[in-house]
Write a structure and sequence with these properties.
Layout (H helix, E strand, L loop, with lengths): L3 E4 L2 E4 L5 E7 L14 H14 L3 E5 L12 H15 L7 E4 L3 H9 L4 E4 L9 H8 L3 E4 L17 H18 L7 E4 L8 H9 L12 E2 L5 H7 L8 H13 L4 E4 L2 H15 L4
Parallel strand pairs: 3-4, 3-10, 4-5, 5-6, 6-7, 7-8, 9-10
Antiparallel strand pairs: 1-2
Helix pairs in contact: 1-2, 1-9, 2-3, 3-4, 8-9
Cofactor: Mg(2+)
Keywords: Folate biosynthesis, Magnesium, Metal-binding, Transferase
GO molecular function, one term: dihydropteroate synthase activity
Length: about 280
Amino acid sequence: MPRNLIIRGRCFEWGQRTYLMGILNVTPDSFSDGGEFNTTSAALVQAQALVAAGADIIDVGGQSTRPGAKQITLAEELERVLSVLQVLRPEISVPISVDTTRAAVAKASVEAGADIINDISGGTFDSEMLPTVAELGVPIILMHIRGTPQTMQQQTDYQDLLKEIYSFLDRQIEVATATGIDRDKIIIDPGIGFAKNYEQNLEIFRGLRSLSTLNCPILIGASRKSFIGRILNQSDPKARVWGTAAACCAAIFNGADILRVHDVQEMRDVSLVADALLRQDA
């Protein structure tokens, strides 16, 4: 696996410590914080708080990808994301990622100062995504999914879950590199909760190390998700912080390099202790 990646002058040294991606949803309908940060002023305050709490990357999303989320128009997504980036970029020094499946949003976002593209479809929803990212020269996060956020929860019938996730990611890494994306700029994500049922989410954690032979940094996004709510019998996503902490710790011990989280301050404590216990060179 590549030992490091330079993004906006910051060196991400894979294997040395866990990095935190702070979630900034600028949507009215995200499952946990929809409507809280969908004005530019609220988004800026939240981004600054995430950085102060220890976020290494801020991930901006203008389209909710929760199960059943309605697809918005390209114009709506561009307006949401670009208005926030224009306010954030002059004030935020850490790398900014944009969570999108549309090549046009990726291109406009990077031109507005974004540094990373986070594509929940692994480059499959928009045939122009991978060539566009190759042209832009930025890192991309390729996530595993089946179907779309509207249909994915009806597509959980796997013969061999981890093998199928591995095969999908392996294929998309090949497609990405063939279009000109530097392999060292590819990060993979098994897609917790995306076309996965409760038992399958747990299976991903237990078998996460099987993805390490793809030789890409691994991102895990388990923060506040419904499988944690089921374990805790907790319907309020914001009351799942301790459960998220346990999932994050498990992810680190099973090979995760980046954690995509809402509660950065708490997960920074988790990752610092887990790294000290796990990584001898920490």
